[in-house]
Each structure stands twice: as structure tokens, then as C-alpha cells.
Amino acid sequence: MKNSIQPATPADIPALVALLNQAYRGEASRQGWTHEADLLQGDIRTDEAELAAIFEAENEAMLKCENESGDLIGCVHSIKTGSRLFLGKLAVRPDQQGRGIGKLFLKAAENYARAQDCDTIFMWVITERTELNEWYFRHGYQPTGERKAFQVDARYGVPVHPLEFMMLEKRLEDRI
Fold this sequence. Notes:
Helices cover 28% and strands 32% of the residues. By secondary structure, the protein is an alpha+beta fold.
């Protein structure tokens, strides 16, 4: 199956909301190898208003992945901040996880970062998501030592206990 990564558009917002909520929260997310269903109560990770703001911002972008049939199977959000690129909302549809789509997104994000003249990619990951953190470590991301408390917004789930983020970072060697 050939998957295509391309920029998302505002027309993709409803499908992106469904994908992100399915991949991160609730029972549907348990079909995949990594999720937050055991850490946060609720089925909502994002909503249309939050995603619409991405498309209105000059320094933000959302990439999407579609399969041969044109079905949305993954996405990643980026924010350019100086010479650094923040990655967030990396999601792959639970029934498509483990097929290399996440790796495609990391590669696409690195290429995008280089094209934007960035030398570093960083992200915030919940410390308790050890299997996900180990996956990022295998792809060259390392903890910076910086941590922060998980900010509670009840619209997007309620932690079952206090959670903490850690920053992961990858320096890009070859800039375009």
C-alpha cells in the first residue's frame, strides 16, 4: 500500500478531529500500540476550533497521510519557532499503527524542518508513555532534562493522576 504525505487543509479539519480523538483517547485508541486512554479520562483530544487555529497561524502547518483510497490515516502538527521546529499531534489511525507511517511522518517532519532552515526538532511527551518515548529514542530524539506539569483542560480529558511532560529533542545534522 502506498501512502501519501501532503499538507492538510481546512477542509480536512473534521477528519483530523476524528483521527486525533480516535488515536489518543477512549476505547477506540486501544486498538493501537500506543494511546493515552489509561492516563486521561474522556474521548476528546482536540476539537475543530483548536485545529482551525493551526490553519490561521503563519508559522504552523499540519501534514496528513492518506492511503491509496484517499482515507486519512495519520497527521502531524508543526510550529516553527526560530531555528527550531515543534512537533505535536503525531497520530496514526489505531488500525494502521505498526506499519511505518509514524516513521514516514518523522522523516517528512525532518525534511520540512530543513526546508524551513531549522536545525532542531522538539516535542513534549507524557513521561509515563514509556513505549512511545522509547520509539522516539530509537529515532534519534533525546530527553533534554526539561519537564513541565501536564496542563489540565477538562475539554480534552481529565488525568487519572498528576501527569508530567518531558521535552525530547533531535538535532538535525544535514541542513539544506
